[in-house]
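go over this record:
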Amino acid sequence: MKKNLRNQLASWDGRSSDDIGAIYQAYCGDNDLSNQLVALLGEQQCERGASWMLKQHMKLVGAIEQKTINQLYHQVLSSRDWQTRLHILQSMEYFPVVESVLSTVDAFLRRCIADDNKFVRAWAYHGFFILAQQYPQYQEEVAQFFALALRDEVPSVQARIRNILKNKNGMT
């Protein structure tokens, strides 16, 4: 891994999108960028920047190796940064869940659905929706989550769920 990437992410202020965008531009051509970013998710001083860059990178490349995705899910399970969790939740459509990490992803989503941050909770519902599309055994439980959230959650979370249901035609 390039030490310079680690140093740049560790020194990023966590707020400037121009600065993190410039770091991304400097590294986006690296063939191994996804692997580097996933490895850096495990370092507290780098995780927010690494997850932001990974989210941007996925929008451009669209797919990474499954073993890298599996490592990502294990790394993010222990994340203490809400923005890191949010970035991964917002990118889950790019990260298929295989059986070997199903319990890890389930634990991650359950942690996020109970998060204090309403944005993390809103996107955790989206993550559960994606999981239910891949694993039908989750569909009934996710439908129950949605019903409870539409009754009890804050309006912004309810709006996210309505958007999921509207754009994805609900769960079958």
